[in-house]
Amino acid sequence: MSLYPINLDLKRKKCVVIGGGKVAMRKVKTLLKAQAQVTVIAPSLAASLVELAQAEVIVYKQKEYKSGDMTGFFLAICATDSSFVNAEAAKEAKLKHILVNVVDHSFPGDFTVPAQVSRGDLLLTVSTGGKSPALARQLRIELEKEYGDTYGILLDIIEKVRLELKMVLPKSKEREQFWQQAMNTKILAFVKQGKLEEAEAEVRNAIDSFRSKS
C-alpha cells in the first residue's frame, strides 16, 4: 500500500468517533491530544470515556449509529465491534467527503493511524501499511527506549536558538548550512546522556565557530 505521510492539524476541528469501547477510547485520547473537538456516538461507553463525557471534555450521543450522524464533521473514526456498522458509517463519511479511518478495515478508509512516540513537539511514527500492527508496536517500543524525554527538551532549545540565529545569520541558506553542521554526534551524545546544558553550549559554540569561518 502506497501511503502519503502527513501530520494533520486537528485543533478545534470537529471529529467523531463511532463506538465507545477500548479501541474507541484510544482513538478519542489521541484526538484530544491533538486538541480536536470530539463527539462520540455509541450506546454505551468504556469507563474512562464516561469520565470524559461527565467532565464535558467530549460530546457524547448515547445512541446506535444511523445514517445522517456524520453530518458536520471534518474527520471520523469508525471503531465499533460491528464490521457492518463500521462499513455503513464509513460509506456515509466518504459520500460527505469526510476523512475516515476504519479500525477493522471492513471498508476502505482514507488514512491509517501509525504507532507513535511523542516527546514534546517531537513526533516519531511507524507505519507498516496495515500489514503488521505487532511489528509497528515493537518498533515503537524500541523508539521509546532510544529517544527519551530529553529530545523534546532539545527541540525547545533549538527553537530558542533558531530565533537568535536569525539575527546573527540573516540569510536562510547560511542558517541551513549551519544546522547541517551543528547537528553532530557530539550534541546528540550529550542529549542521550541527559546533559542538556552541555548540548546547548555545544550549539552556541557551533554558532561562534560558523561565524568565524564565514
Tell me what portion of residues adopts beta-strand conformation: 15-25%
CATH class of the largest domain: Alpha Beta
- CATH architecture term of the largest domain: 3-Layer(aba) Sandwich
Helical element count? 8
The percentage helix is: 40-55%
Strand order of the biggest β-sheet: 3-2-1-4-5
Q: Compute the CA-based radius of gyration.
A: 22 Å
Summing up helix and strand content along with how strands pair, one would put the structural category as alpha/beta
Profile the largest sheet. Answer: 5 strands, parallel
Total domain modules: 3
What is the CATH topology classification name of the largest domain? Rossmann fold
The gross shape turns out to be elongated
Q: Supply the CATH superfamily name of the largest domain.
A: NAD(P)-binding Rossmann-like Domain
Low-pLDDT stretches are: none
> Could you state the order of secondary-structure elements as H and E?
EHEHEEHEEEHHHHH
Number of strands: 7
Catalytic activity: precorrin-2 + NAD(+) = sirohydrochlorin + NADH + 2 H(+)
Domain Siroheme synthase central: 119-145
Protein name: precorrin-2 dehydrogenase
Pathway: Porphyrin-containing compound metabolism; siroheme biosynthesis; sirohydrochlorin from precorrin-2: step 1/1
